[in-house]
Amino acid sequence: MGKGDFARAHHVAFFDAMATELPDDYATQEVNHLTLGYFAVGGFSLLRELDRVNTEEITKWVLSFQVHPEAHGDEYNGLFFGFCGSRSTQFPLPDVKDPCHNGSHLASTYSALAILKILGYDLASIDSKALLLSMKKLQRPDGRQASFCSFMPTHIGAETDLRFVYCAAAICSMLDDWAGMDKLKAKEYILSCQSYDGGFGMVPGSESHGGGTFCAVAALHLMGFVQVDLASNLQDSASIDMHMLLEWCLQRQVTDGGFQGRRNKPSDTCYAFWVGGVLKIIGAYHLIDHCALREFLLTCQSPYGGFTKFPHNWIPDIYHSYYGLAALSLLEEEGVEPLCVELGILSSAL
Predict the structure, then answer these.
(1) Which SS3 state, helix, strand or coil, does residue 138 take?
(2) Which of 92, 149, 244, 260 is the most exposed place for a label (fewest CB within 10 A)?
(3) Rg of the chain over all Cα atoms, to the nearest angstrom
């Protein structure tokens, strides 16, 4: 692997290994099996190697995680009927009396639908009515104002932040049905998360963060509230401070060519996608230094294949490997498929 070369064959071998058997270090991530599956399948798709996976087998595996309501359920009993993240979240623990155990999670549901879309499965076959109507019950007032509604990731309650607003928007978009959320209330919550410096924090009043900023802008775009043409200085009705957002994003590319997720942090492979994706959505990706970013990403390639979090490390992980490829897709790297940025899946899968 020469300096400045995209090691495509090494990356194919890495994702081949990840799709076969995850290393022991991933044992603690058992509850996120669907998300890890999304990274593996997504990596193959970006590398144009989907023929290496058994599409029918993976489709059956993904569908086996969907939770369906009982036929006699009245308004779904307040439960969320999405996808569980793994077998351990799908079934009740021993000695726990729970006749209607349901570990559905918004992130797992997003991952499931994304995998199915990538594999070419017709999502019209999904029980989307139960999924969307029960998902809408996860949208709750923020607590500060009733018009600001975030999303809980599960019906049993958990943290609420922009990650789950994004998941809900992506789910509705992939299913082509917005019955699962109140878009206007979600928009108000997102806008309340924009910080004084133009970026978005995960929750109102928190520090601007690359991941939160992507979730905010991508969700608004999916909901139809962000349609920006910077060249003609047009701004949508979402009331984002677009110029401050642009400045914050451009400032995240640092001297080594990579992107940091927050101020005063080192550059990190994944933020080349999270922050780069925001710039792509708002039509400002041409303003970054493409050559410097590509050089940074190639220094994050592991000699074993895959990508590391920081440059010149040896041990890759599947998360940074997927987002390293996704970032190269934004750069239109030869041998990497084009990506639908706002959904995180191949453009050809739409």
Answers:
(1) coil
(2) 92
(3) 20
User: Cα 319 vs. chain centroid, distance in angstroms?
Assistant: 11
Between 32 and 308, where is the model more confident? 308
Residue 146 has pLDDT above 70, yes or no: no
Query: Could you give the angle at which helices 318-330 and 271-281 cross, rounded to 10 degrees?
Result: 30
The whole-number pLDDT of residue 242 equals 92
Lowest mean pLDDT among 118-122, 124-128, 157-161, 338-342: 157-161
User: Coil, strand or helix: which one is 299?
Assistant: helix
State both tokens at 318: 């599947």
Q: Which helix (H) or strand (E) holds 271?
A: helix 271-281
Does the pLDDT value for residue 96 go beyond 50?
Answer: no
Amino acid letter for position 221:
H
Residue with tokens 């290496």: 52
Residue 74: the pLDDT is 52
**How many other β-carbons are positioned within 10 Å of the β-carbon of residue 243?**
12
Q: Are 289 and 7 in contact (CB under 8 A)?
A: no
- Could you give the C-alpha distances from 102 to 87, 130, 291, in angstroms and in order? 11, 14, 47
The stretches of 120-182 forming alpha helices (DSSP H) are: 128-136, 162-175
Whose structure tokens read 């999270």?
A: 274
Confidence of residue 68 (pLDDT cuts 50, 70, 90): confident
